[in-house]
Amino acid sequence: MLLNYLKIAWRNLRKDKFYSLINILGLTIGVTCGLLLLLYVTDELSYDRYHANASQIYRVVSHITEPDKVNRWSSTQPPLVKTLKQDYPFIKNYVRFFPYGRVMFRQGEKRFYEDDIYAADSTVFDVFSYKFIEGDAKTALDQPGSVVLTQKAAQKFFGSRTALGQSLQTNDTTFYKVTGVLEDVPKNSHFTFNALLSTGQNERSQATNWGGFYILSYLVLPDNFDTKILESKFPQVYDKYIGPIFKRMGIKVTYELQPLTSIHLYSNLEGESNGNIGYVYTFSAVAFFMLLLASINYMNLATARSAKRAKEVGLRKVMGSLRSRLMAQFLTESVLMTVLALGASLILVLVLLPFFNSVSGKDIRYGELLRPGFLLIGLAIVVFTGFISGSYPAFYLSAFEPAAVLKGSFNTKGGSFFRKALVVSQFAISLIMLICTWIVYKQLNFMRNHDLGYDQEQVLTIDYQDRQPRGSFNALKNTLLANPNIREVASASAPTSNIGGRVIFGVESNTGLKEMGFKPMSVDYTYLKTMGMKVLKGRDFSEKTPSDTLNSVIINQAVVERMGWKEPLGKKILLGGLPQAGQPAPPTAQVIGVIKDFHQQSLYNPIEPLIMLCRQANGVVHIKIQAKNIDKTVAFIGQKWRETYPDCLFEYRFLDQDFESAYQADELRGRIFTTFSALTILIACLGLFGLATFTTEQRVKEIGVRKVLGASVSSVVVLLSKDFTKLVLFSFPIAIPVAWYSMYKWLQNFPYKTDIGVWVFVLACLLTLLICWLTVIYQSVKAALMNPVKSLRSE
């Protein structure tokens, strides 16, 4: 029986090649997009799950509650997890990562800068399942002076030679012995590194100070452990260890346990750049809608062509065929088309996967296509799409009454209404995606062009890696300024995209001195001028006032707003908090200037209250250059840098490119969304084109009669187009509220956002209407130009 169904389905498919092609093409696009989006979603959901005990690992994050604000940080104090393990024996293990950032290593005569360097406790390989290529995971970081490299770093340092047992030297003359080489940390990790140093030579790792939050801390808890048990202990930890430091400032500290597998999609702490579960839901919905649109195309064309299948159904019923068998026949046809589409889709996925990886920023391998889970989902897509596509045509066509069909009194009015509803649904979905795509790019463009409060164009930045060379900064600065293509040279404590943690200051409030946490930044005399920052009140630091390095600070507007000052100039700032009994009084400075707020980080983060201190030769050099002869100017800077600091590599970046990278993840997602938005419209247009073709075929004699009676070509085109125009217009009031609400909720994730704007909806609706007209106008014009003699003649 099944073989017979397949034979008939194949014959029908070959008989109507045009409609079969449209259906298979629509289904192929829908299934291909569904599979690619499924790969994306699967990758997002796989983060950190490759660790053997991933379900037992938790990251400890800090909640710091000040009297006027709450901060949530992914970092903690060094003693925290070590103390928790000692006080609560049910904790199975812990590990801490101490950030070193960017480090220069020496290997013989070779020198390399390497990013993402951390020191880690020797328990790191007991907690996390990183794969060793060389060395022993159990002892790799036990001894002081040990380093474990990733495969990429090992090849960079040692080429094809064995790295195990080799020595590396940092620029501060510390030697490390390579005790292990790991496979590169998988991309589906919330946390990556290029090298791990042992903590034996790291004084910070032995610190018992509870005042600094700068490390990443992880715990291993028993399987199926109720985290509320440990979280209920945190107030006791605060009272015992932390309270003596922070209580007098009115600061409350508590902690949260984040499951390792939830960090990537559910954590959005300060300074983090993770994924978002909202995008997983969005792309899953897009995949579903694309399959649904392709299914709607099939249903539309199947019911539109019902008149051609009506006599077939009538004859089958007269010959004794049961309705259930007719339904099975029509479902077999839809499943066969879906199977053919799946085969074509798998080939397309293989071809498009490298391109999809480049667009999405993923590293999905071909092996993912052979995983049993993925193959099962592919089979589920066939079943789902095949049955959804064929369900209504099967019920509709199998319900024909043979007597009415064979008498010629059969009509398709009910099917016509359903087809119209499906077309409205298609264009409503397409319009929603078009509007959402438009607003996503409007927001990204807003962030790229938003006034940051400083001039980042043609600003070249170089990081110092050690304190020793900075003594020659003034000599370097004077040498560089002799070049007419270099406008300004300055230094600051860190790039503007990452100023660092907070420091406790004693601040003169309207009710007396208070201890409060602010972000500090060290800058030299020319920093504000170099960066084009605007002084709103008071003055800049000045070389003519040497005391500025001791008793002057500059603040931003956010500090004024936080403190509620009417007149900020002259306010006292104690550098180090309020005086404590038995300790020397901290230095006291005064506010000499207020600058316009500028974005220290990307626009995903609100502007922080900032206190600037005047210091010379800070950790980052900023060089403002002319827009012309950039290559020659950079070469000149490199030459003078190497002459001044022969032991330091010259590596630079441009500040605007550095800032743009903060939006790279969203831009990649935007490209994906745009691509699939365009494809949803294409699928809808394929269906509309098929319906327009079939409609003109049905009305060919009517058109011939109208032309004989004097109808013009334009009136015939309008006649054939107006029904489809009405359907698209009906989709507008459905799509607009859904798109507006979705984008309104999405924009709430941004502290600084664009307005949605009425014109977006107007232009999107006009564009959708134009696409509709372009889709049907070819068939309409073709039918209108047909010679009525041909259409009216009787065979």
From TrEMBL:
Recorded topology in the membrane: Multi-pass membrane protein
Protein's cellular compartments: Cell membrane
Domain MacB-like periplasmic core residue range list: 20-210, 430-602
UniProt entry keywords in alphabetical sequence: Cell membrane, Membrane, Transmembrane, Transmembrane helix
Gene Ontology CC terms, in alphabetical order: plasma membrane
Protein name from the UniProt record: ABC3 transporter permease protein domain-containing protein
Residue ranges of domain ABC3 transporter permease C-terminal in the record: 285-401, 675-788
Main location: membrane
GO molecular function: transmembrane transporter activity
Transmembrane segments: 21-41, 278-299, 326-353, 373-400, 421-441, 672-692, 727-744, 756-778
